[in-house]
């Protein structure tokens, strides 16, 4: 397992590496914001993940927030999901909250996490 942690300057310990290899069967775990501008193939656990316009994730993930400007292929569970203009999702994601901008592409089932009851209040 690869673990990213912030140092005192807020920079991850592998911020200056050009390549990270996540071997088959391993899980990449991020304890800081993971900003993806290349390709990650493999499973990811993290707090905040942002896929940049040229970034791609191919694998399963679990995180608190996921912001997609690039491409995501796989399955996962996310508390807050935002698919931005130009962002692409192919797979299945479960979420608590979702925002999909005009120009985003979603191919696959998206479903709310039904762990907590939802209270709807209507203003008449």
Q: What characteristic shape results from the CA principal axes?
A: globular
Largest sheet: 10 strands, parallel
Q: Which structural class do the helices and strands define?
A: mainly beta
Average predicted confidence as pLDDT: 79
C-alpha end-to-end distance: 52 Å
Count of discrete structural domains: 1
Work out the helicity level: under 10%
Given the structure, what is the number of helices? 0
- Strand tally: 10
Rounded to an integer in angstroms, the radius of gyration calculated over CA atoms is 15 Å
Brief account:
The chain is an all-beta fold and 124 residues long. The chain has strands at residues 2-4, 27-36, 39-41, 43-51, 56-58, 61-68, 71-83, 88-100, 105-107, 110-112. Strands 1, 2, 3, 4, 5, 6, 7, 8, 9 and 10 form a 10-stranded parallel beta sheet that branches.
Question: Any overview of this molecule?
Answer:
The structure is a single chain. This protein has one domain (2-112). Helix content is 0%, strand content 55%. The protein has strands at residues 2-4, 27-36, 39-41, 43-51, 56-58, 61-68, 71-83, 88-100, 105-107, 110-112. By secondary structure, the protein is mainly beta.
Q: What are the defining features of this structure?
A:
124 residues; mainly beta; ten-stranded parallel β-sheet; 10 strands; disordered C terminus
């Amino acid at each position: 397992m690869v673990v990213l942690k912030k140092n005192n300057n807020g920079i991850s310990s592998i911020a200056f590496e050009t390549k990270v290899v996540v071997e088959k069967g391993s899980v990449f775990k991020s304890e800081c914001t993971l900003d993806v501008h290349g390709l990650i193939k493999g499973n990811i656990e993290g707090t905040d993940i942002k896929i940049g316009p040229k970034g791609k994730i191919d694998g399963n993930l679990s995180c608190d927030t996921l912001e997609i400007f690039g491409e995501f292929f796989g399955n996962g569970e996310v508390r807050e999901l935002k698919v931005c203009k130009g962002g692409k999702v192919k797979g299945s994601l479960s979420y608590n909250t979702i925002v999909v901008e005009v120009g985003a592409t979603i191919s696959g089932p998206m479903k709310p996490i039904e762990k907590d009851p939802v209270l709807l209040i209507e203003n008449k």
